[in-house]
Amino acid sequence: MAEKINRELVQKVARLSRLELSDKQTERFTSQLSAILEYVHKMDDLNTDNVEPLAHCLPVDNVMRTDEAAESIPVRKALANAPGANTSFFRVPKVLDEDAGII
Amino acid sequence: MSSKIVNLTCRQLRDEIAAGRLKSKTAVQASFDAIESLDNKIGAYISTLKDQAVERADKLDEKLQAGQICGPMAGVPVAVKDNMCTSFAPTTCASRILENYLSPYNATVVEKLLAADAIIIGKTNLDEFAMGSSTENSGLQKTSNPWDNSRVPGGSSGGSAAAVAARMCFAALGSDTGGSIRQPAGFCGVVGLKPTYGRVSRYGLVAYGSSLDQIGPITKTVEDSALLLNVIAGRDKLDSTSVDEKQAPLCDYLTELDKPLSNLKIAILPAFTEGADLQVNQAIGAALDVYRRAGADILELQMPSLDYAVAAYYMVATAEASSNLARYDGVHYGHRSEKARSYFDVYSKSRSEGFGSEVKRRIMLGTYALSSGYYDAYYLKALKVRNLIRKELTTAFQKCDCIITPVSPTTAFKRGEKIDDPLQMYLSDIYTIAANLTGVPAISIPCGFDDKNLPVGMQIISPAFSEDKMLRIARMYETATNFSNASPAISA
pTM of the full predicted structure? Predict the structure, then answer.
């Protein structure tokens, strides 16, 4: 039931992942991802019709705390690794633009 | 003098320092002597902290001299894999995207080491973002296996395993998502333990596969593994996936360590492990004889679902990774492309410049597995297979105390041998992956050598939260064979 992993699909997935690939990379990834996904299809041999998905090994519950204000990381520290910053904000290229409507 | 000190175990060193017979500064200096003479060949460390370490050691030596009680690792030089946050040294994850990143906080395990008075001497190399089985995917540098520098140390905690094996530290922390502590420990001839999921806090561990990741110790001996586990284990309110101690009580992993288990039932999986190299299986066979002589029963089991573990893992782990690595977007920290002209470019150019090929491959696999139209067939299917594997494992543990397998089908392979075939590389995790998918603990201990003098690692897999028993089982083998005395002869 393996669908075709072709160049177009790889480019679409790359875009979703916010990765820019060269033509050579696209070609290499297309053949590597095909081989890997073909292997993964092994799982089709197993009947899992009445099996629940197991996302976590331990029963995990959401952890709550009392709604009391406490210290947060200081602004200066939060900005310390920023590629672009002014005194209290992260600086980035313009977001709203004619070309900004990209999915 | 130096070389005798570096061969001490953590426990021995800790005791010497506590008794005033050795200074921590001397131990730190001995580790740095080893680093300065060997690491240009081995490449285990991404960064070292000599000045800080000497200063800390001096302060500790003063405290001890003044008669103050210090922590259980007082004065012992340790290394930390470079995917665990430290506020006093960069945390690069061996990636260009985080090359200069200085974390504003310490990982909980780092805080615990500091509170135990350990001396952190450096950050070790890994496969980028912990994705790999050889450390060849590091975006920053190469690490060699101290037993043969044309071969890989294993991965992804290759730097930590190599540093311990070459006596460039007394112990190291690694992380394990699909075998990344156990397999390099096996390739480098040292002890590597992956605790039960939830036993150790993941706060400050840079996330790869959040339902799979665990931090654990890499050490020369089983006793040291127990000592380190005592330090790092425990509930952390900063990690909501760490287990409540009411559900899984902590114990002192050292107190009963030397008590062998009687009526020990060890399961083996011949159908599953017959594909391992002949010499690997022979070494495991000889190890099982040691257990037989100690009174254990060996029984054969079948676990057919394990044949699907690698397939399930490479969907679950990559799906989680695609989500976890979305934060590396060039906005708040890390590399931002200078070519970025739009906000979209900030993301895609920064990520493309900063990430290596393996990371990109796994992000894309994960994105695909989660994408509309494919989610059910891939990600959901993998989670169901995960459940099947767990059910089979639970049934197996009703019949045995532990399962023993090789840690890997081969001993350390040559650099470059598998790097061009990602699928071949993934298949080298075949024996270690199930413990991550199911959350159970597992340990790798040295059990001999092949005819190229390369270490063979034996894996012991044990039920959830039974690290105390698992360590005792490992200790039985260590006592009978003294494996910890072997170390690589590295020419300076």
Answer: 0.97
